[in-house]
Design goal:
Layout: H1 12-26, E1 30-40, E2 47-52, E3 57-62, E4 79-84
Antiparallel strand pairs: 1-2, 1-4, 2-3
C-alpha cells in the first residue's frame, strides 16, 4: 500500500497570520531611508506612499492622527528617514 505523505495545508488567512507574526517578530521597529514616491492623502486623512531606492520599494501607510503630526508636507521625490513597524 502506498502511503501519501501528510501535507500541511493552510488557508490564505492562516498563511498571512504566520507571515505577519514572522515579520513583526523579526523586525519590531525599523528605520528606512529612501525617496518618497506615490504620495497620496485621501479624504480619510491617512497618508499612503512608497519609500524607494534604485532597486526596490516598500509600500507604507501613516494613519491619522499621526499623519497630522508631520512638520513638513510629503512630496514625491523627497528623501526621508522613516521609523515604523513592518507588518503584512
Amino acid at each position: 500500500m502506498n502511503a501519501t505523505p501528510a501535507r500541511d495545508v493552510l488557508t490564505p488567512s492562516q498563511l498571512n497570520a504566520l507571515a505577519r507574526d514572522l515579520l513583526e517578530g523579526a523586525f519590531p521597529l525599523i528605520w528606512v531611508e529612501g525617496e518618497l514616491s506615490g504620495v497620496s492623502r485621501p479624504g480619510s486623512g491617512h497618508l499612503y506612499f512608497s519609500i524607494k531606492d534604485a532597486g526596490a520599494q516598500v509600500r507604507c501607510a501613516l494613519f491619522k492622527p499621526k499623519s497630522t503630526w508631520l512638520k513638513f508636507v510629503p512630496r514625491d521625490g523627497m528623501r526621508v528617514l522613516a521609523r515604523g513597524r513592518l507588518t503584512l
